[in-house]
Amino acid sequence: MKILVALACLFLLSYRPASVTERPDFERFFTEQKLKGSFLLYDPQRDHYTAYQFERTRQGFLPASTFKILNTLIGLETGVLKDEHSVMKWDSVKRDIETWNRDNTLETAFKVSCVPCYQEVVRKVGLKRMREWVAKVGYGKPDINADNLDSFWLEGKSTITQEQQIDLLRRIHEGKVPFAPKNLAILKKIMLIDEKPGMKLYGKTGWAGGSANPNIGWFVGYVEKGDKVYYFATNIESPKPVPATFVPARRQITEAILKELGI
Question: Catalytic center at which residues (predicted)?
Fold first, then answer.
Protein backbone atom coordinates (compact mmCIF):
# COMPACT_ATOMS: atom_id res chain seq x y z
CA MET A 1 0.00 0.00 0.00
CA LYS A 2 2.85 2.37 0.91
CA ILE A 3 4.42 1.68 -2.48
CA LEU A 4 1.18 2.59 -4.28
CA VAL A 5 0.88 5.83 -2.31
CA ALA A 6 4.49 6.70 -3.08
CA LEU A 7 3.97 6.04 -6.80
CA ALA A 8 0.81 8.15 -6.81
CA CYS A 9 2.64 11.03 -5.14
CA LEU A 10 5.49 10.72 -7.64
CA PHE A 11 2.99 10.87 -10.52
CA LEU A 12 1.31 13.97 -9.10
CA LEU A 13 4.66 15.68 -8.64
CA SER A 14 5.78 14.82 -12.18
CA TYR A 15 2.49 15.70 -13.88
CA ARG A 16 2.34 19.30 -15.00
CA PRO A 17 -0.73 20.37 -16.97
CA ALA A 18 -0.12 22.64 -19.94
CA SER A 19 -0.16 26.33 -19.10
CA VAL A 20 -2.61 28.68 -20.80
CA THR A 21 -2.32 32.30 -21.85
CA GLU A 22 -5.70 33.86 -22.55
CA ARG A 23 -5.81 36.62 -25.16
CA PRO A 24 -9.05 38.61 -24.87
CA ASP A 25 -7.58 41.11 -27.33
CA PHE A 26 -8.05 38.52 -30.08
CA GLU A 27 -11.74 39.44 -29.97
CA ARG A 28 -11.07 42.08 -32.61
CA PHE A 29 -10.28 39.44 -35.23
CA PHE A 30 -13.78 37.99 -34.77
CA THR A 31 -15.69 41.27 -34.42
CA GLU A 32 -14.10 42.56 -37.63
CA GLN A 33 -15.90 39.68 -39.37
CA LYS A 34 -19.07 40.17 -37.27
CA LEU A 35 -18.72 36.64 -35.94
CA LYS A 36 -18.49 34.90 -32.58
CA GLY A 37 -16.00 32.16 -31.93
CA SER A 38 -12.88 30.92 -30.22
CA PHE A 39 -9.26 30.17 -31.03
CA LEU A 40 -6.79 27.72 -29.54
CA LEU A 41 -3.11 27.23 -30.29
CA TYR A 42 -0.84 24.63 -28.73
CA ASP A 43 2.93 25.01 -28.63
CA PRO A 44 4.40 21.58 -27.73
CA GLN A 45 7.88 23.05 -27.44
CA ARG A 46 6.67 24.90 -24.31
CA ASP A 47 3.67 22.69 -23.48
CA HIS A 48 1.65 25.88 -23.66
CA TYR A 49 -1.77 26.94 -24.96
CA THR A 50 -2.71 30.37 -26.27
CA ALA A 51 -6.46 30.90 -26.30
CA TYR A 52 -9.29 33.26 -27.03
CA GLN A 53 -12.49 32.22 -25.22
CA PHE A 54 -10.73 29.27 -23.60
CA GLU A 55 -13.87 27.80 -22.03
CA ARG A 56 -15.55 27.73 -25.44
CA THR A 57 -12.63 25.72 -26.84
CA ARG A 58 -13.75 22.93 -24.51
CA GLN A 59 -17.28 22.97 -25.91
CA GLY A 60 -18.18 20.27 -28.41
CA PHE A 61 -19.45 21.04 -31.92
CA LEU A 62 -20.22 18.98 -34.99
CA PRO A 63 -16.89 18.20 -36.67
CA ALA A 64 -18.23 18.86 -40.17
CA SER A 65 -15.59 18.40 -42.87
CA THR A 66 -12.71 18.42 -40.40
CA PHE A 67 -13.70 14.75 -40.02
CA LYS A 68 -12.19 14.22 -43.47
CA ILE A 69 -8.81 14.14 -41.70
CA LEU A 70 -9.67 10.95 -39.84
CA ASN A 71 -11.94 9.68 -42.62
CA THR A 72 -8.99 9.79 -45.02
CA LEU A 73 -6.82 7.70 -42.71
CA ILE A 74 -9.58 5.15 -42.10
CA GLY A 75 -10.27 4.89 -45.83
CA LEU A 76 -6.59 4.28 -46.55
CA GLU A 77 -6.03 1.86 -43.68
CA THR A 78 -9.05 -0.29 -44.59
CA GLY A 79 -8.07 -0.43 -48.26
CA VAL A 80 -11.12 1.50 -49.46
CA LEU A 81 -8.60 4.05 -50.72
CA LYS A 82 -5.18 3.14 -52.13
CA ASP A 83 -3.37 6.46 -52.22
CA GLU A 84 -3.85 10.15 -53.01
CA HIS A 85 -4.50 9.25 -56.66
CA SER A 86 -7.46 6.97 -55.88
CA VAL A 87 -10.39 8.04 -58.05
CA MET A 88 -13.73 8.91 -56.47
CA LYS A 89 -16.31 8.63 -59.22
CA TRP A 90 -18.98 11.30 -59.57
CA ASP A 91 -22.45 9.83 -58.95
CA SER A 92 -23.95 12.06 -61.71
CA VAL A 93 -26.05 13.98 -59.17
CA LYS A 94 -25.78 17.71 -59.93
CA ARG A 95 -24.91 19.78 -56.85
CA ASP A 96 -24.42 23.49 -56.19
CA ILE A 97 -20.65 23.18 -55.77
CA GLU A 98 -19.26 22.68 -59.27
CA THR A 99 -16.04 20.96 -58.17
CA TRP A 100 -18.16 18.14 -56.75
CA ASN A 101 -19.79 17.49 -60.14
CA ARG A 102 -16.93 15.48 -61.58
CA ASP A 103 -14.60 12.64 -60.75
CA ASN A 104 -12.12 13.55 -58.02
CA THR A 105 -8.97 11.93 -56.72
CA LEU A 106 -8.51 11.59 -52.98
CA GLU A 107 -6.22 14.62 -53.08
CA THR A 108 -8.62 16.87 -54.98
CA ALA A 109 -11.64 15.61 -53.02
CA PHE A 110 -9.91 16.61 -49.78
CA LYS A 111 -8.95 20.03 -51.08
CA VAL A 112 -12.41 20.87 -52.45
CA SER A 113 -14.02 19.20 -49.42
CA CYS A 114 -16.20 16.94 -51.58
CA VAL A 115 -18.89 15.72 -49.19
CA PRO A 116 -20.46 13.09 -51.51
CA CYS A 117 -16.99 11.66 -52.25
CA TYR A 118 -16.30 11.07 -48.58
CA GLN A 119 -19.83 9.82 -47.92
CA GLU A 120 -19.11 7.03 -50.38
CA VAL A 121 -15.86 6.24 -48.56
CA VAL A 122 -17.77 5.90 -45.28
CA ARG A 123 -20.37 3.63 -46.87
CA LYS A 124 -17.62 1.36 -48.20
CA VAL A 125 -15.88 1.27 -44.84
CA GLY A 126 -19.20 0.26 -43.28
CA LEU A 127 -20.82 0.83 -39.91
CA LYS A 128 -18.92 -1.80 -37.92
CA ARG A 129 -15.45 -0.82 -39.07
CA MET A 130 -16.17 2.91 -38.86
CA ARG A 131 -17.32 2.60 -35.26
CA GLU A 132 -14.29 0.48 -34.40
CA TRP A 133 -11.78 2.87 -35.93
CA VAL A 134 -13.34 6.01 -34.48
CA ALA A 135 -13.34 4.37 -31.03
CA LYS A 136 -9.77 3.09 -31.44
CA VAL A 137 -8.51 6.57 -32.26
CA GLY A 138 -10.58 8.22 -29.52
CA TYR A 139 -12.31 10.80 -31.68
CA GLY A 140 -14.47 13.30 -29.79
CA LYS A 141 -17.94 12.10 -28.81
CA PRO A 142 -19.27 10.26 -31.87
CA ASP A 143 -22.86 9.18 -32.42
CA ILE A 144 -22.74 6.69 -35.30
CA ASN A 145 -25.57 4.37 -36.25
CA ALA A 146 -27.06 2.72 -39.32
CA ASP A 147 -29.33 5.69 -40.01
CA ASN A 148 -26.63 8.38 -39.97
CA LEU A 149 -23.55 6.50 -41.17
CA ASP A 150 -22.96 8.84 -44.10
CA SER A 151 -23.83 12.07 -42.28
CA PHE A 152 -22.94 11.72 -38.58
CA TRP A 153 -20.17 14.33 -38.82
CA LEU A 154 -22.44 16.84 -40.61
CA GLU A 155 -25.60 16.72 -38.51
CA GLY A 156 -26.83 15.10 -35.34
CA LYS A 157 -25.17 14.60 -31.96
CA SER A 158 -21.52 13.87 -32.79
CA THR A 159 -19.20 16.49 -31.30
CA ILE A 160 -15.55 17.37 -30.96
CA THR A 161 -13.88 20.22 -29.07
CA GLN A 162 -11.01 22.43 -30.19
CA GLU A 163 -8.80 20.79 -27.57
CA GLN A 164 -9.68 17.38 -28.99
CA GLN A 165 -9.01 18.54 -32.54
CA ILE A 166 -5.52 19.65 -31.50
CA ASP A 167 -4.90 16.44 -29.58
CA LEU A 168 -5.75 14.38 -32.67
CA LEU A 169 -3.59 16.53 -34.94
CA ARG A 170 -0.66 16.20 -32.57
CA ARG A 171 -0.98 12.42 -32.32
CA ILE A 172 -1.20 12.16 -36.10
CA HIS A 173 1.83 14.39 -36.60
CA GLU A 174 3.85 12.42 -34.04
CA GLY A 175 2.74 9.05 -35.43
CA LYS A 176 0.95 8.08 -32.22
CA VAL A 177 -2.16 6.77 -33.95
CA PRO A 178 -2.82 3.22 -35.26
CA PHE A 179 -2.20 3.97 -38.93
CA ALA A 180 0.60 2.94 -41.29
CA PRO A 181 3.36 5.55 -41.79
CA LYS A 182 2.67 5.60 -45.54
CA ASN A 183 -0.96 6.55 -44.89
CA LEU A 184 0.07 9.30 -42.47
CA ALA A 185 2.42 10.60 -45.17
CA ILE A 186 -0.41 10.67 -47.74
CA LEU A 187 -2.63 12.62 -45.35
CA LYS A 188 0.14 15.10 -44.66
CA LYS A 189 0.68 15.64 -48.37
CA ILE A 190 -2.97 16.43 -49.10
CA MET A 191 -3.33 18.63 -46.00
CA LEU A 192 -0.64 21.04 -47.21
CA ILE A 193 -2.27 24.42 -47.89
CA ASP A 194 0.58 26.90 -48.11
CA GLU A 195 4.35 26.80 -48.24
CA LYS A 196 6.87 29.59 -47.84
CA PRO A 197 10.60 29.55 -47.07
CA GLY A 198 10.93 28.01 -43.62
CA MET A 199 7.16 27.55 -43.12
CA LYS A 200 4.46 25.07 -44.10
CA LEU A 201 0.75 25.40 -43.28
CA TYR A 202 -1.40 22.27 -43.08
CA GLY A 203 -5.12 22.29 -42.41
CA LYS A 204 -8.74 21.49 -43.07
CA THR A 205 -11.85 23.63 -42.96
CA GLY A 206 -15.36 22.58 -42.00
CA TRP A 207 -18.88 24.00 -42.07
CA ALA A 208 -21.89 22.57 -40.26
CA GLY A 209 -25.32 24.11 -40.11
CA GLY A 210 -28.93 23.75 -41.10
CA SER A 211 -32.36 24.70 -39.86
CA ALA A 212 -31.90 23.10 -36.44
CA ASN A 213 -28.36 24.31 -35.71
CA PRO A 214 -26.37 27.53 -35.77
CA ASN A 215 -23.84 27.54 -38.57
CA ILE A 216 -20.47 26.44 -37.23
CA GLY A 217 -17.21 26.94 -39.09
CA TRP A 218 -13.87 25.25 -38.47
CA PHE A 219 -10.27 25.66 -39.48
CA VAL A 220 -7.89 23.20 -37.84
CA GLY A 221 -4.32 22.26 -38.61
CA TYR A 222 -0.72 22.97 -37.80
CA VAL A 223 2.24 25.06 -38.86
CA GLU A 224 5.75 23.71 -39.29
CA LYS A 225 8.22 26.54 -38.83
CA GLY A 226 11.82 25.46 -38.99
CA ASP A 227 12.16 22.60 -36.53
CA LYS A 228 9.10 23.69 -34.54
CA VAL A 229 5.42 22.86 -34.91
CA TYR A 230 2.32 24.69 -33.70
CA TYR A 231 -1.20 23.22 -33.65
CA PHE A 232 -4.32 25.36 -33.99
CA ALA A 233 -8.10 25.08 -34.01
CA THR A 234 -10.45 27.94 -34.83
CA ASN A 235 -14.22 27.67 -34.44
CA ILE A 236 -16.67 30.36 -35.51
CA GLU A 237 -20.42 30.72 -35.12
CA SER A 238 -22.50 32.50 -37.72
CA PRO A 239 -25.69 34.47 -37.38
CA LYS A 240 -28.49 33.66 -39.81
CA PRO A 241 -28.59 34.21 -42.67
CA VAL A 242 -24.98 33.21 -43.19
CA PRO A 243 -22.95 36.21 -44.39
CA ALA A 244 -20.82 35.93 -47.52
CA THR A 245 -17.76 36.51 -45.34
CA PHE A 246 -18.36 33.32 -43.32
CA VAL A 247 -16.48 30.88 -45.55
CA PRO A 248 -13.25 32.87 -46.00
CA ALA A 249 -13.38 34.14 -42.40
CA ARG A 250 -12.36 30.74 -41.03
CA ARG A 251 -8.90 31.01 -42.53
CA GLN A 252 -8.66 34.79 -42.42
CA ILE A 253 -9.20 34.94 -38.66
CA THR A 254 -6.79 32.08 -38.05
CA GLU A 255 -4.01 33.42 -40.24
CA ALA A 256 -4.37 36.92 -38.78
CA ILE A 257 -3.92 35.52 -35.27
CA LEU A 258 -0.98 33.35 -36.32
CA LYS A 259 0.65 36.43 -37.81
CA GLU A 260 0.01 38.35 -34.59
CA LEU A 261 1.75 35.54 -32.70
CA GLY A 262 4.70 35.60 -35.08
CA ILE A 263 4.00 32.13 -36.45
Answer: 65 (acyl-ester intermediate)
